[in-house]
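Record format v2
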Amino acid sequence: MRTALFLLLLLAIASVPGSLLPQRGENPVAVDNFILKHQFFGKLLDSLKFFDVFASVWFSAIYILLFISMIGCVIPRTFQHLKLVFKAPPDAPKFLDKMDAYSVIEGANHAESKELALKWFKSKRYRLKIAEQEISAEKGYLRESGNLLFHLSLIILLLGIAFGSLFSTNGEAILNIGDRFLNTPTSYDSISYGRLQSPAGLPPIALTIKDFHATYNPVNNAPSDYKLQVMAQNPFNAPGKPITIKVNSPLTYGATKIYLQANGYSPIVTVRDVNKKVIFSGPTIFLPQDANLTSSGAIKLPDANPQIGFAGTYVPTFSQRFGQAISSAYPESLDPRLLLGVWKGPLGLDSGIPQSVYKLDTSRMVRLGTVALKIGESYNYGFGTVTFNGYTQWVNLQIVHDPGKNLALLGALIALLGLIFSLLGRQRRIWIKFGEVIEIAGLAKTRVSDLEVEIKELLSRINP
Amino acid sequence: MSATNWGYLSNYGVYTAMIFYTVAFVSHAIEFSFAIKSEPVLVGNGNLLEKNKTVFDFTSTRQSGRLGSVMMVLATASLFVGDVARGISAGRAPLGNMYEFSLSGGLAFSLAYLLGLYKFKMRWLGTPVSFSLLLILGTAITLLYRPSAPLVPALKSTWLVIHVTTAILSGGVFLLANCVAGLYLFLEKAERTVGRPKYLAQLPSIETLDQLCYRLVALVFPLWTFAIIAGAIWAESAWGHYWSWDPKETWALITWIAYAAYLHARATVGWKGRKAAWLCIFAGSTFLFNYVYINVWGTGRHTYSGL
């Protein structure tokens, strides 16, 4: 028991760094920055897995040891308890007056008293052992039963978590309105699998993004509602079903759920070369930079001659205070502008170094000009023209498959039930001896017990 | 009435409550401080050595204490109006940011005290309770105040009320258990060395405090467990994962584990008294750390405080 207690406290302490240091699973960029900033100390922490605490060997070791110690304690106790439940209550101790709430009744009729006492015990659902000269009664196994149920269900919870993480998939996809998403590995922007899950296990779901609507509160510009309308097919060739996805109501197909996680703007741009030939046309996903959805992104044209890149900022509601940079005043597109910096030169896409699609690497490029466009306006940058046609919206869908979820929930709920039982139950024994006088006494296993009140009630029944 | 008017009513309610709490604090303080009398006593056998002895005489100050209790009732009523009006002005349960969390939590604390006053005659707690409430509301209106507004989409869920209410209630009881444990440690030390101070003579025995602390924790532990489970169910529908080791989640688990350790230490290993009280205070501190540090300076997804 002391070991389990030690491991419990150790588990609590081991969780602390995971909440105070940035974690790779949640925020890999913050981890890299932390290591850069703290150099040796950061690398030391990294090698000790302090940035992946909850997946680290030492953290797992603690909770696995804890569960082993718990199982080792709970299983024998379960058998012991079951044996006790099916056994008759123990005989009365030799000296009842050493027990609690000892009372004596003198001059009562033994047979009559015995009958009255038995009647009372039965109405209170005590378990009884009746002998010629004494009655042993016991009640309140709920406490230990609940206690054991609680610990056993923690094992169910752990199994649910383990099963879920082994067979899960978790992926994200960014889609513009009008896009169609097929649930295959290549459709995802990022996807990760559980150890025993293969890419072939994805259910055949297809989604067409029909419409997205965000409502904002004009007082503080905070979002008040997001509503995504999709046409869903399961399997791929099934007839489409219109479905609304909101933040707290994901689309559910069995153990697979599709969540609306983020959204933003995609300005639609058409680029023509000097011969008026269209070399690019369509929406480009821009990432929000602030609460008013000032968004930035990049359009890269590696096939243009020379190579052209646009570093863009989309401003849904244009505002410029004197002496300050242009920014958005409201997250809705009330007065949109597209600010473009046009760059000429090698984009660096063939250098082999991975680069962000949302950022332009201008280190080897030359700026041709900057412009702020309203919808419908064009800008001639010498090697062609760029037209701002309008905007559409994108949504970030998170698609999670976790088959262990329900088992984990079941485990958690049974644990709660067991916990409540273990608090309600009060184990106690009452003995009655019929000798020269009638002796009554009891024993409460927990201090939180109204044994005396109960015995008083029994006394008044036998000897009114 | 418009949402703005309800908002004003809420603010007036909170200000009025603060005035009442201030009067209550002063009345309770007067009840105690003016009850301290020193009277000469004879020491030694017949040598008539005079010595001043501190005694408590509540006969003349009882009125002040009663006034304090009346003020506590009025303050609670005003705070109730303030909290409810805030909810109406925002069109939802007043649990959306840290300001509203403080109002609702303070109201729960105040109601718990009134219940204790009614059932257990706990007027001796009036001074610290009214002072704590002044601190809570003072912090709320100065540092945490945000204009009343609808919720962000992630918070629009029935689980908000379930998860946050159970978390607030559990937190309130954890803090109460901490107060009891702290009191236990203070009295235990005093009784071991110089004896219990006179002005605390009315307080229960240290054994009772020890037992009370255990009962409070045992009672509220399932509620805290439920608050965590409710949070997990909600997280599953709002964030996609029922558990993602968000700092607040991690600390909620740390608190859970610490109290589980406390219950085990008491029930199975047989700890009680000083060791158990310290463990209880440790567990309660993890909750406080979670509330203060993670809400204000923390990162992660539980950052709805509006700060």
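Chain B touches chain A through 50 residues (CB under 8 Å).
The longest helix of chain B spans residues 158-192.
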